[in-house]
Design goal:
heterodimer, A: alpha+beta, Glutaredoxin, four-stranded mixed β-sheet, 11% strand, disordered N terminus, B: alpha/beta, Ubiquitin-like (UB roll), 24 helices, 16% strand
């Protein structure tokens, strides 16, 4: 992974220093790994091996344990998100109002599967469970922006906004 | 609040914020200022009104005017016409679908008539970021009463007498739970609020935290006093940023007002609250898994006993309650267990909040007394089925629940009745389905969810849910045999009887309940390769009817794979090899010229 130029660029020294500071400022390191990983993902956008290694060292726990936690919780990701992360809500309310078709259309239009990022790093696609805006079902999030009552034929125009 | 002549309340819940309601607040304030009314009229951003279907909502007090689907640019006309001239803006008023008449007082709306708001009492009434508004509506009085007038034992006695049962899904009597936690000795005890709302399609906990965070802070302090804990923890989903922000502010303000911290109200009682973030795992709604997650571990459940009341967070006695349960606590102490007892059914007291969603006209958050029938909820409050379609089923209890059908519509809703019908109360998600929803597909949807969310610790759940979802996949593709259907039943029963925690034990419920009530639909998939609801794409083909197609080209323009060909004003044809069966053409055609079979 150290050969990957884009990764090493993104994983800046400054990020690691910020994370180290956060860990040093903790009142209690026992049981803090989840909040440390939240912080790390906030800084780096994802949790690659180097970051997990770093967290393990600083908290003095095995890296296998950190990996166990990262892989357990769906909020944590080991793949960098796209510049515009797309999340299609697949909560039940959205599902019965046709979210699956919308998701399929995104998959087709971007030519990626759920959990993947496009080759140019522009878009990533995720299915998430209920944002609680069931009145707007089906809901799609692009970054922070919420699109409500989305139909498959709107997918192209939504993507166009970010091109 | 009395200083102002009028109040304009704007919904600041997630749904309405997504539709730009905060811009409405700003615009209203600007226009009010332009008209020099800023000292007479107050604009407030409140919690959720519950009527999410027609958001963003703007309500005007004292006359209860209820404006729906308000856009930021409508602020000007609301101020100029209503606030300045006293004329209601008819085009923004809610119109009752049955009569098409504008309703000018929200009390007359069918949506609100049968509701009774206890847990949601402040949602949509107060600014959740302002502690004084909470206090003005009797906030923190229950805590004061408990600390000054009541012993911890008396508080527990009152809770037991009220008959309040856990609203997170289990339905365990809350007072009894508190008593266990009180009786277990420990140098340190904890109160935990479970705000890890994971049931997809349920959003009541989030709405309470967003709309009335102080009620949770107050209730946790009361619980701390009752069980002898000085520390509270809220375990909340990281996916709820707005709720987190409002809760953080509420905790900070409560500390400043001396309602949290050392020696609260000079009673000698100390209590403080810390927030712990979840990271997206459905199983963490199970209390032992939740506790492990708070300790920084994988959120895997462990067998009970020991119950958290004996050995919970860091091995100390811990009491875990859900958000909605806590929201009921201050009211019970203030109005008394006797009052609470009068609401609801024999074994289920009080009210229940439901998140109504799916194919229903009024999507939203409602609160009704226990014992209200499904028919009242779906047809009176919910306004019936969307687009005049036929009601087919309602799914309650989320991935752990089951489907109820037409014949259950007159069943009074309470914990025990729903269980007897093969479903469950769960956290209160209620997804309404119509004739176009295929039941094996719905079961598959839930099983894919539990398969995904299974923590993997016990074999029945880890492997069993995967096998179930594979079998259901075969059914929806028309590849299953009758033996497979038998296998579905047997496997479901095995998982139910042998899985470690609630997630696994209830995971087969969506299969068992749909297979029982919609057996014919399963059989149609297997024996006739047919999906009666017309949803399973593998069993469907789309055709254009020659006699009805007028060649408007709408279908070919909407087709994402260019599978439809034909010249303008001549009959179009679908290329079956290219068609991905997305149904876009079917939805688009205005002439009913496209059929699926």
């Amino acid at each position: 992974m150290s050969n990957c130029e884009t990764c090493t660029n993104k994983l800046s020294e400054r990020g690691f220093r910020e994370l180290e500071q956060f860990i040093n400022d903790l009142d209690e390191k026992t049981g803090a790994v989840i909040s440390v990983l939240h912080k790390a993902q906030e800084i780096f956008g994802y949790l690659p091996r180097e970051v997990q290694q770093f967290v393990a060292n600083k908290l003095e726990i095995p890296v296998s344990k950190v990996y166990g936690i990262v892989s357990f919780y769906s909020f944590f990701t080991m793949i960098p998100k796209g510049e515009h992360p797309i999340s299609v809500c697949m909560g039940t309310a959205c599902y019965v109002r046709g979210a699956e078709k919308v998701l399929d259309e995104f998959k087709r239009a971007l030519n990626i599967e759920v959990g993947e990022t496009t080759a140019d790093g522009k878009f990533s696609l995720d299915a998430l469970r209920c944002v609680g805006a069931c009145g707007l079902a089906p809901v799609v999030l692009v970054g922070e922006k919420v699109y409500g009552r989305v139909t498959p034929d709107q997918v192209k125009s939504i993507l166009k906004e970010y091109e | 609040m009395s200083r102002y002549k009028m109040h304009v309340l704007v919904c600041g819940g997630t749904g309405c914020v997504s539709s730009n309601s905060l811009q409405i607040v700003d615009n209203l304030k600007n226009h009010i200022k332009e008209n020099g009314l800023e000292n007479d009229i107050q604009v407030l951003k409140t919690g959720c009104f519950g009527f999410c279907e027609k958001g963003p909502i703007v309500k005007i007090l004292p006359d209860n005017t209820f404006y729906v689907q308000v856009k930021p640019e409508d602020a000007e006309i609301i101020v100029k016409e209503h606030l300045v001239k006293g004329r209601k803006v008819d085009k923004l008023l809610y119109k009752e679908p049955s009569t098409e008449k504008s309703i000018d007082d929200s009390k007359h709306m069918e949506f609100y008539k049968k509701q009774m708001r206890v847990a949601l009492r402040n949602c949509g009434f107060i600014d959740p970021d302002n502690i004084e508004e909470y206090i003005a509506r009797d906030g923190y009085q229950a805590l004061g009463k408990a600390l000054v007038e009541m012993t911890p034992e008396l508080v527990i006695e009152e809770m037991k007498k009220s008959g309040l049962r856990g609203r997170g899904g289990g339905g365990f009597p809350t007072g009894l739970k508190w008593e266990f936690a009180r009786k277990n000795k420990g140098d340190q005890k904890y109160v935990v609020c479970n705000a890890d709302e994971g049931d997809p399609g349920a959003f009541m906990d989030r709405s309470i935290l967003e709309g009335d965070p102080h009620s949770i802070v107050e209730a946790m302090a009361i619980c701390g006093y009752a069980i002898g804990a000085d520390k509270g923890l809220v375990y909340i989903r990281a996916e709820y940023p707005l709720a987190v922000k409002r809760l953080e502010k509420a905790i900070k303000d409560a500390r400043e007002y001396g309602l949290l911290g050392k020696n609260i109200l000079d009673s000698g009682f100390d209590f403080d609250i810390e927030i712990k973030y979840g990271a997206g795992a459905f199983v963490c709604g199970e209390e032992t898994a939740l506790i492990h997650s708070m300790e920084g571990e994988r959120g895997e459940p462990t067998t009970k006993p020991p119950f958290p009341a004996e050995s919970g967070y860091w091995g100390k006695p811990t009491n875990v309650n859900n958000v909605e349960t806590f929201a009921n606590v201050p009211v019970i102490l203030l109005k008394g267990a006797d009052w609470f007892q009068t609401i609801g059914t024999e074994k289920s007291k009080g009210t229940k909040v439901f998140a109504l969603a799916g194919k229903i006209n009024n999507v939203g958050l409602i609160e009704v007394p226990m014992g209200t029938t499904l028919r009242e909820v779906i047809f009176d409050i919910g306004g019936g089925i969307k687009d005049g379609k036929r009601f087919k089923a309602v799914q309650t209890g989320g991935p752990s629940g089951g489907c109820l059908t037409e014949e259950d519509l007159d069943t009074p809703i309470d914990f025990d009745n729903l269980l007897a019908k093969g479903s469950m109360m769960g956290s209160g998600g209620m997804i309404v389905m119509d004739e176009d929803d295929c039941m094996p597909s719905v079961a598959k949807f839930y099983l894919e969810f539990t398969e995904d969310e299974s923590c993997g610790k016990c074999t029945p759940c880890r492997i069993g849910t995967k096998r179930l979802s594979e079998l259901l996949d075969k059914v929806t593709k028309g590849q299953a045999t009758m033996e497979d259907l038998e296998m579905l039943k047997v496997l479901s029963e095995t998982i139910r009887d042998t899985a470690l925690c609630g997630l696994g034990q209830t995971a087969p419920n969506p299969v068992l309940s749909t297979i029982e009530t919609f057996w014919d639909e399963y059989v149609a998939h297997v024996k006739e390769n047919r999906c009666p609801a017309g949803q399973c794409t593998d069993l469907l083909k789309y055709f254009i009817l020659e006699e009805k197609c007028i060649g408007c080209t709408a279908c070919s323009r909407v087709c994402p794979v260019e599978a439809i060909s034909g010249k303008v004003k001549s009959v179009h044809v679908i290329d079956q090899d290219k068609c991905i069966k997305c149904g876009a053409c079917y939805d688009k055609c205005k002439f009913s010229a496209i059929i699926k079979k």
